[in-house]
Design goal:
Structural class: alpha+beta
Pfam family, one: Kdo
Protein name: Protein kinase domain-containing protein
Order of helices and strands: HEEEHEEHHHEEHEEEEHEEHHEEH
Strand order of the largest sheet: 8-12-13-11-10-9
Largest sheet: 6 strands, mixed
Helix content: 25-40%
Distance between the termini: 61 Å
Strand content: 15-25%
Number of strands: 15
């Protein structure tokens, strides 16, 4: 007698992925949500409402929490509650168009090893376009098409840069990369960060970190690549604790770049230097982290590279208690680096001094 898993019987909740809004709730909004492995792009506009003043008030009340300036809450409603409100309206469409999990997104099949999803399936899932109407005070979810209004999350790097990259690193199509999740249920809502890649064409796959860059992210990706090139050219040793570039995730047919493959820093989720210091670690660990971060920044500077966004949240603590410097996209964080010094070695040193001060300071009761 065949049985059906709990995951297959019980519908998964819809998970918000991306929201595009204006500055005001009355402006058009686009919300993308994942449900059973499919992507639903929902366009929201008051121009699709007619004879519905009360529905309009309810709509605006639930849109306010998802506006960026409202920090996830407005008038007692959280953004989570707002997304649930929207998902409930569209549940009939979700259930009709995506009644079951696709195999690649089924947590049970992933857990049992029956499904080995590819990165391409997560980046470019089956997609449906939807719209919210309101007529005579009734909300009406509408399935518009099987494409959606959002463009693909692609970036297009300079051709000369791509040619140079081919001389010292590898290119990988997302079809070549197998996705790994620490918890299978993450397949339903999280962009993959761990992938298996055959780095040397030996049929042996290595676990790597996939750093995804979204739509039109050419500048931060180019900045990060430039740092990795300097690390590569300087032949910095393992004592310089930064991830190494292992490859470029690229779609040849579209000449589009999706992100970077980096060597993995094995750490507990969320274990940054900032969070590690909350636990008041012993002095020997504090001294180790201070020495490691200082040494890594100094060696990056000797190689002609700049960290950029120097702060405690951009230092990972691995499972062996070592400190790794991450995030070379550029930019700066207020309170760590002065705006005028952003992107310079002096800016790095400003951030480093504050990091060292934080490491040496003890929490107060």
């Amino acid at each position: 007698m065949s049985t059906t898993s709990t995951h297959q019987r019980t519908p998964s909740p819809a998970h918000p992925v991306r929201t595009i809004t204006g500055e005001d709730a009355s402006e058009d909004v686009t919300v993308s949500m994942r449900y059973h492995g499919r992507l639903f792009i929902i366009d929201l506009s008051l121009s699709n409402f007619s004879n519905s003043p009360n529905a309009t008030k309810q709509y605006l009340k639930n849109i306010e929490p998802i506006l960026p300036d409202n920090n996830g809450e407005y008038d007692g409603i959280t953004d989570t509650e707002a997304f649930e409100w929207l998902a409930n309206i569209f549940e009939p469409i979700f259930s009709r168009l995506a009644p079951d999990f696709t195999p690649s997104f089924d947590p049970v099949k992933i857990s049992n090893g029956l499904s080995k999803p590819l990165l391409s399936e997560y980046l470019f899932p089956e997609t449906f376009g939807c719209r919210l109407d309101a007529e005579d005070e009734k909300f009406i979810p509408v399935h518009v098409d099987n494409e959606g209004s959002l463009v693909k999350p692609l970036s297009f790097l300079d051709g000369d840069l791509l040619d140079e990259l081919e001389t010292w690193t590898r290119f990988f199509d997302p079809l070549e990369l197998e996705v790994v999740f620490q918890r299978p249920e993450q397949a339903l809502y999280r962009m993959p960060e761990l992938v298996l890649a055959d780095l040397d064409k030996s049929d042996h796959k290595t676990l790597c970190f996939f750093k995804h860059f979204g739509l039109a992210s050419e500048n931060p990706m180019t900045h990060e690549i430039s740092v990795h090139k300097k690390v590569h050219d300087a032949k910095l040793g393992p004592d310089v604790r930064v991830s190494r570039l292992r490859g470029i995730v690229h779609i040849q047919d579209e000449d589009a770049t999706l992100g970077l493959l980096l060597s993995l820093v094995d750490h507990e989720e969320g274990m940054t230097l900032q969070s590690a210091l909350y636990d008041d670690p012993p002095q020997n660990l504090r001294e180790r982290w201070a020495k490691q971060v200082k040494h890594t920044v100094e060696e990056l500077h000797r190689a002609g590279a700049v960290w950029g966004d120097a702060k405690a949240d951009n230092v990972l603590i691995d499972k062996d208690g070592n400190a790794w410097v991450i995030d070379f996209e550029g930019g700066y964080t207020e309170g760590w680096v002065e705006k005028d010094e952003a992107g310079t070695k002096e800016g790095d040193l400003q951030g480093l001094r504050k990091i060292l001060d934080l490491i040496s300071s003890k929490p107060t009761d």
